[in-house]
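User: My instructor asked us to take a sequence, write out its structure as tokens, and then describe one feature of it. I'm not sure where to start. Here is the sequence I was given:
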Amino acid sequence: MKIKYLLLGLLIIVITTALYYQSESPKVQESITFFPIDSSVTYKTTQTSLKLIDKKTLVWKIDSILDRTAYLRQDAGLLYSNGRLIDRLSAWKQNDKRIEQEKRLVSKANALYEAITFHHSELHEKGGKIFSSQAMSSDQMYVVHTGPNTQYSFRTAASKNQNEWKQKLDEQTERMLQYSWNKGVRHFSIHLNDYQAFPLNLFNKLTKKELPGYTKEETDKIVGNLWEGLYKNYLLGIKKADGTTADPIGSTIPLILLANNKTHLLVLTETENGVPILLRQMIGDTY
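Assistant: Let's start with the prediction itself. The structure tokens for your sequence are:
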């Protein structure tokens, strides 16, 4: 009988220990981490799309398919209206190839909508080596309200009226962003002659090849580290200088400032209530 209870006690200890170590094992965190790019890995699909349906509903979709199963798949998207963030999408999957996301919003005003997505995959290979595969996609669309329940949309102006609305919305957005960025430049005493300036919404086109003065490998590293920082310090909440976090909704499209001496980059934005925000990142490092 004593042996029976002894064996039962040992079994309980073994089970308890196993459960303890299981609970203490590392868990995958919802984050983006840049690793060296594996050029042999490709995306079959990277797509961001905007569509107006029912004359008032804006449908925002993100879809990406990798050519193989990744240890971790992640997509992070930002949606701007007239230069200010109105929504965000983020999803991740383990041991999968594809991520699909969709969100529907009510379009309430005349707007230039711009959606930007970063597609990321983390790949674990034999020997413990970890690599990344990444891409960006984007879409933009103009929505014009002609009456209480009457709207239409276009991407490329096909008439005089559409061209007038395009010019009006472009100028309105550009004026607001320039004012915001200039205020931030003055607030933080940034010497613009020391930097190359690129709005985040132009990065998709610029980084398909190389950033001016950088190789493709260097460009990929800058983009990967930039989005790692944007995800942690912008999309999940803007990290302010006093250590508090501000909601990114309502913030302006970030202006990316690449130092001419290639030592660092700056991310300049403004919160919804007009507070200038500056994030600094050493090239190749995190914020």
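For the description part of your assignment, you could build on this observation: The longest helix spans residues 160-187. Try explaining in your own words what that tells you about the chain.
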